[in-house]
Amino acid sequence: MAIFSIHRIHDTFLFRYSLNGYPYMAHHGDWFGGKAVGMAVLNIGSLTANVYVTHLHAEYCRDKDSYLPHRVVQAWELQQFIRHTSAGADMVILGGDLNMHPQDLGNRLLRSYTGLQDAYLETAKFDGCEDGMTLIADNPFINKKELCPFEKGIRIDYILFKGSTKTDIYCDYMSTTKGSVPNHPFPYSDHEALTAGLRLETHTRTETRSDRQPKIKDSAAGKLAALVDIVTEARTEVKVGLHCAERMRYTATRTGVMGLALLVLELAIAAGPEQPFPRTSFYLLAALCFAILLTTFLLYIFYTMELKALQGAEDQMRLAVGSLQEKLRGFPLAQPHNARGGPQRVMSPVHWPRRNKRGAHCGQSGLCERSL
Amino acid sequence: MAIFSIHRIHDTFLFRYSLNGYPYMAHHGDWFGGKAVGMAVLNIGSLTANVYVTHLHAEYCRDKDSYLPHRVVQAWELQQFIRHTSAGADMVILGGDLNMHPQDLGNRLLRSYTGLQDAYLETAKFDGCEDGMTLIADNPFINKKELCPFEKGIRIDYILFKGSTKTDIYCDYMSTTKGSVPNHPFPYSDHEALTAGLRLETHTRTETRSDRQPKIKDSAAGKLAALVDIVTEARTEVKVGLHCAERMRYTATRTGVMGLALLVLELAIAAGPEQPFPRTSFYLLAALCFAILLTTFLLYIFYTMELKALQGAEDQMRLAVGSLQEKLRGFPLAQPHNARGGPQRVMSPVHWPRRNKRGAHCGQSGLCERSL
Hints:
Two copies of one chain form a homodimer. Chain A is 43% helix and 18% strand.
């Protein structure tokens, strides 16, 4: 990951994702890559721009994506990082290989929570691959089978942006490279590169017209309800990951115990008066037992770390859902717009599902069917 | 680490430090503890409070503190995390076991960069151990030898705070526990607990009196210059860490190569027509070689990760020093205050040391001798 800038970089910060695949999946290499999100703070005139760059865990098999919980936690941490570090920024730009299709859970989570807009969807002009695809079938560096069932290619690299109360930001044009380097038979990389031209407009926001308020509130409530849905979906995915990690840790523990039992048994037999083993087999078996014990010990530690990270993310999501639901309760019920000026029916707390302190599931359906 | 609050926690975020000791130092246990800084966002009335909690790597030997570079990088990441996530906060509170004395490098780095104030130094009333000590010699859970040469104890736990342009924050009282639990022969923990009463005052800052401006600028320039000094000191410490990590990785590589050479030699001899080894020794030696190869491979990966994290922090510090120096150039020279109203001599860029693009060392002495 790199950020090059003609504006001076004043400050930087790097956040390493807590989860990023498995070290023993060495042929996938993601764990060794050490995925993170980097931030650079630029001053453009009197404005502050926070520019982020990231790369999330790859998807190797869409049907049976064992890395999905990790990627969802990465998307969760990415949105947290951007939200919490961009409060003082006048504009936010994120570029990166998100390894997620436009409507994938992590992508929806990121965009809904941060309010970032997709440059491809917002651009006035576009010049590039069909449907903005960045991983295309024609690329000689990729395995076409991995694209299946998307024969032509997929869009997994993004430029996202948002302004602030001081700044509006528009995408005037966007382009992607289209395969080979001019006059060469090969492309620059396995992905197509993205370029976006963004235009800034500063303003003083004085347009809080009171007649627009109810509509704004309705739409905000709708967005909040949708966000509750998305976070709940992410929570479910993380729970699946938790279940898998628990099972893996259990398997590692059981294998370790079996290795230990084998070692004890061997030593007990060897301590007896008769030696039924040839010495070679004895040493080989002992070495095998030690290897099993060491490997399962390392795996146990790794899975414990994975479990703690997943559990932490799940806890944070539970708390976030609770907080979002409380915010939602503060909004008036969606109502016909001709009721303007009349007394507003404020949702009474008793209408809302109770006992949602621990689980968002119970609250979710009730909330979202009403508000959307 | 835990945050308990009577105000609802609306949002959370956790940052794991990139460096935290070594897994093979299992008797110290810090690596297994997984140190981090946690943040909780509370709404207190109409105000937003960011509350942070952290625990840095312990210091086991002050004279020969091999963990110092790790702790300095943790302090660096802590200040980055607080600065970048607190832009929207009306008040910031940090509590934690920093494992640093009040004037230690990491502590100065944290307080200078964030502007956080030490509750012990700011409190109107104090009731507790002498000098605010939190790790006292009387505690039965600690090893008194580790305190040496501070026989009575040390102050390594802190409550730090700061307000904002909207809020002033004052510490009305502070206390520590003083050894044993009332009516019991043992204390609550190996550290004394801290309590602080903080008072908030909100205001609209309209007091930008123009006659105070020059003095404020001088003091800000002095603080900036001091900060440049501190970051440079931290950079030096990180460089020492880099040197150590490089040496360790080199040792691991060399040992691994020797293990491989031994294995190849053994196999070459075994492939010959005569068998000089008893079979048992052959297998034992081969097992030893494999153990060496595996261990050095794991160590190589670990030290590479350590190197990358240290190098990353060093790069960030270099960039920060450059940015701080540029800011400093924008300030007028310190001048006699009776020159008020006269034309201000603005520091010309040619007065400043050049060629400091990569090194802060050359810039530092020039800057700080002038401004302090």
